[in-house]
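ok new one. same drill as before - structure tokens go in, u give me an amino acid for every spot. 429 of them this time. try not to just spam alanines like last time pls lmao
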């Protein structure tokens, strides 16, 4: 018999809970022999890459087909027996058992929502058994770099009921010297943006989208960037030094029959590329995520060549937290970095591989939430543990977004004088 340790998993149970859009999602509880408890909740994306791991949904009438009882059953009936008794502190081995049990390239048998929630619950239970916060359990004592928040304060695309083509317009408080100061700057800009939008477009302009950013009735992407500049200035900060801007275009969503619908017009990939170059010249945009559809991967490289390092080109739907795809697209010269979302690949171990691949190749990682989120705070810990330096977790509003910001404040407080905030440095190539 294998001797049991304090880290041995003695209890695994899943249940169906709700995400921030009111859709069902998977929550998993794990308890170890030493009494450690961990919980993981799977998030859900709305603008997904074609090569993402797939979540299991029930179909049928309940919850409009969005139920996850099959994924809950996959945890309780198949995953639990496979990982009970395993060593939670060796979470990579636990993940490997799940990957093997699933046996598909995209988690389609068990469901990536089942494996993601379990993976996060196991590692949280291990940290709890060790009596450490998750970031310290994963990253050790050297992990003390808080991330620069890329705060999505104007929502468009499939995250909002407006006509803005680009999905996310973000502010990065890079001039701050601590994380808490950066968060304050972001909040002040968010509030001043609210006033600007209300004054300019009327009270209906301050309704919010899926990630807590405003969803104003704008049509032109320039209008949104202009609003950000005005808001930063009105809050008393300098655009380009205290606060810089970033975009997530999520361009696969704009792509129809070889062209892109932007600003109410049909643009070819070359015209869209020219638009990006002009926007980077006119506004302090430091990063553009998913500027082209996955089908137009070659244009990522053309854009990088045209920008010559003036802004980062980041993959999300293109790279889907998959180490092999990250390696391929970096080798082809298409990206300066990639988004890391555990549920795009289905386990923390595989997300870790994507992070390590980026690091080895000298590229940026950006840890990210999804548009459908929960109170789960694991990504705050992952950002600090792997010294990622950049996090996307939405506007500084709505509980599922502030839960991450608040956790980062707690981590900063826990680290007290040892916490570091990289600011502008993190963007340098
Ligand atoms: P999603 O969008 O969570 O809806 O996929 C987030 C993103 O594209 O970064
Ligand atoms: Zn994205």
């Amino acid at each position: 018999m294998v001797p049991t340790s304090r880290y041995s998993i003695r209890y695994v149970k899943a249940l169906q809970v709700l995400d921030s859009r009111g859709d069902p999602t998977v929550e998993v509880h794990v308890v170890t022999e030493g009494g450690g408890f961990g919980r993981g909740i799977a998030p859900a994306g709305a603008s997904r890459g074609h090569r993402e791991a797939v979540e299991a949904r029930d179909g049928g009438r309940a919850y409009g087909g969005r139920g996850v009882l099959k994924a809950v059953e996959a945890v309780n009936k198949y995953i639990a027996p496979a990982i009970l008794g395993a060593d939670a502190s060796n979470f990579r081995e636990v993940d490997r058992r799940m990957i093997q049990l699933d046996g598909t390239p995209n988690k389609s048998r068990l469901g990536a929502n089942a494996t993601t929630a379990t993976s996060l619950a196991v590692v949280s239970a291990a940290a709890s058994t060790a009596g450490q916060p998750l970031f310290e359990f994963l990253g050790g004592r050297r992990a003390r770099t808080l991330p620069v928040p890329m705060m999505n304060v104007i929502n468009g695309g499939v995250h909002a009921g407006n006509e803005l083509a680009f999905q996310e317009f973000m502010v990065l408080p890079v001039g701050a010297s601590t994380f808490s100061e950066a968060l304050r700057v972001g909040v002040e800009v968010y509030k001043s943006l609210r006033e600007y939008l209300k004054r300019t477009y009327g009270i209906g302009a301050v309704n919010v989208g899926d990630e807590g950013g405003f969803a104003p009735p704008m049509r032109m992407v320039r209008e949104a960037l202009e609003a950000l500049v005005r808001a930063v200035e009105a809050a008393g900060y300098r655009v380009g030094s205290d606060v810089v801007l970033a975009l997530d275009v999520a361009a696969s969503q704009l792509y129809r029959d070889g062209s892109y619908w932007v600003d109410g017009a049909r643009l070819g990939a070359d015209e869209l590329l020219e638009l990006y170059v002009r926007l980077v010249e006119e506004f302090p945009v430091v990063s553009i995520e998913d500027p082209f559809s996955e089908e137009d991967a070659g244009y990522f490289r053309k854009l990088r060549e045209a920008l010559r390092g003036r802004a980062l080109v980041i993959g999300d739907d293109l790279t889907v937290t998959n180490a092999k795809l990250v390696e391929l697209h970096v080798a082809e010269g298409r990206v300066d970095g990639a988004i890391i979302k555990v549920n795009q690949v289905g386990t923390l171990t595989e997300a870790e591989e994507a992070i390590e691949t980026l690091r080895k190749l000298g590229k940026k990682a950006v840890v990210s939430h999804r548009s459908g989120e929960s109170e789960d705070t694991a990504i705050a810990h992952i950002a600090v543990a792997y010294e990622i330096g950049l996090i996307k977790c939405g506007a500084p509003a709505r509980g599922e977004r502030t839960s991450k910001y608040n956790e980062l404040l707690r981590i900063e407080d826990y680290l007290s004088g040892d916490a570091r905030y990289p600011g502008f440095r993190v963007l340098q190539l």
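The first strand starts at residue 9 and ends at 18. and btw The mean pLDDT is 97.
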